[in-house]
Amino acid sequence: MHMNETEKKARLAEALRANLRKRKAQAREQAGEANQRVRTHSDAE
Predict the structure, then answer these.
(1) Is 41 exposed, middle or buried (0-12, 13-18, 19+ CB in 10 A)?
(2) Average pLDDT estimate for 15-24
(3) Average pLDDT of 7-30?
């Protein structure tokens, strides 16, 4: 494997990890908002 291919794979792997972290953070944020809505709704009853 050429050095360019190795570097390309390393950059791709890092980009995929960064994307995964970003998606997980967004999912946690959305889950937190959903929990707040449920809690607020149940408190109103």
Answers:
(1) exposed
(2) 98
(3) 96
